[in-house]
């Protein structure tokens, strides 16, 4: 059994870095606070005798050797970066559960056959630099390294510059072929486990995603003398696109999702018809054909809306990931671990993207979900119960021991 | 006749202060650039022998004495502040036409019976600090001085602090009762004069305005795992309010206007359902009852939309001005001046708010419009022809001489 107080203590310690007034965390990818979080994680891993590797996109691998020098690694991990108004558990729960497994093995002087490795992936959230799961995407070859280095945030800072600024561009070569199995514990970020009073979600896969940046360009003009029928109001276009996206997502239930998270109006003056609006679109679905159909419907809607309002537009994909089905054997390992521990469990599909979804393309992978309060995450009020955190970490311990052998 | 090159030269000189790359001007109220504009105007007026008065909200009055010491003032003016992406003519044309009248009278050594006064009103645009026409509003008693001093910009700077920072809080007491007549030349900012190939718009009045700040509060949550039907998406509310405002304005044609100029999403992350949206609403109409009805319809729509999406809201009025009908005699003076000068002219209603609309409540007032290119203003591409600028200034000269007597 893992030590629930030790894990909880580390979670609370990490949450101090970027703590927000409302009890959340703002520790966005490749910021100075992200650096502090990484430093702390490495310090904790070194204290457990781990060797550290850092790859070219800043993914951190902390390794505890096994008894069999030819064995592949049993890996666990997640991410340390957060949303601008994120919570304490999203990401950190997975990384620090992996560390807690190592601490428990050390404490009980258990040597596994296969090495155990804990990983913190770079920029999982994707809010500062799209797309999400950037570090695991580059690691697994789904995302192209050079293209990701050139991605920039709203201020124009590139991933490449930000990585250098925090001194986390490594040169260790870590290959997906080293991985035997990858497990990722995470809070559910949705309401299902809580609603059904279930402790463990056995994640069978995750929704595919399509993200777009959309720029609508009309003509900025005076809000008073410009007659309604002569306007080319970019905000009218943006309002209709928002509704179209919502309608399309609703037409693809139960798995469809559609969200406009960012919108900027130019010039942004009360008595000026906006000449330009920049906005983001986030679409998700479990069935590949449905996700493609949603993307096409949105593109058609944008075209029609812009024509009607006399707007020009640019619709740029920033993320495009197919739905992921996890490896059956890995999923079974998680289910069995929950059963061994006599924890209530259910199979579940992840609505959020996770690093495991990219690792799953190049190695056997699965995830362990625990409930979070009201299903809320990406919010400072995100909360999880100590007993659930403890249960999830124990499932990880059992699954890793099962995969690594003693 | 006024000197068209001299007026044009001063307009271009003033436009250098806050000049934007696309040929426009960003010289927002009570900024350091506004101070430079004010300093330049005062310097030019002093060079013409004018005495300067500055009142408690920073309105600048430049006076040329008349021969009758008991006579009231014939005043002309407008504003020197601009939109964030404004043009060279909006406001400056009126102020510098007034100055050009004084220069012309000086050049020809003409003494009027009544004194002539040119005024630059503080914060006409209202984009940094709502409402618009703040300086003339306080001067005419329509807006309350203390309340206006406490208004703040998006960064939380108050009018009071900004006024002190640029050293333009005066202590001259200038009273509306000093005014015999007030004339304000301005670009039309709409398409009518250009469309009908008319040089002079004889402005009979202006649309009333209702401005609101609207905050919609829902629940920020993850864009992936949060099912559509469980969302409290503030952006969905904002999109529907935008469309409702548009629909309501369209239902009140030909005079109804509805514009959403500003919108800010919190937290503003691509994969987060916005928990809060702050937006501005701008509504206008020529008939008082219609404007009131529009305001009520919008309030009802906001209530209904928020209920449907599970949102809370705060709808705060930031401006509320009835439509203004200018003094018939003053309007006739403008029309006669245009006729004397054999300029094509037509009666017109202003869609924009103007200082003259507040001054008109406490003294006889009227306005002189000239065409602007494509009816576009509040845009860096705003443009006016030298011959129209010259014609408008000449109408002002004739109207002022008519009102002041020689
Ligand atoms: N788990 C998580 O919050 N991932 C962020 C990427 C996403 O938007 O799904
Ligand atoms: N004339 C002008 O642009 N005034 C600004 C106030 C308004 O929005 O009408």
TrEMBL record, chains A, B:
Pfam families: Peptidase_M20
Cofactor note: Binds 2 Zn(2+) ions per subunit.
GO MF annotation, one: metal ion binding
CDD domains, per the entry: M20_bAS (cd03884)
Entry-linked SUPFAM superfamilies: Bacterial exopeptidase dimerisation domain, Zn-dependent exopeptidases
InterPro entries the UniProt entry points to: Amidase_Cbmase, Bact_exopeptidase_dim_dom, Peptidase_M20
Keyword line: Hydrolase, Metal-binding, Zinc
Classification via Gene3D superfamilies: 3.30.70.360, Zn peptidases
Binding site residues for Zn(2+) 2: 90, 125, 378
Domain of life: Bacteria
Cofactor dependency: Zn(2+)
Binding site for Zn(2+) 1: 79, 90, 186
UniProt record similarity statement: Belongs to the peptidase M20 family.
Protein name: Zn-dependent hydrolase
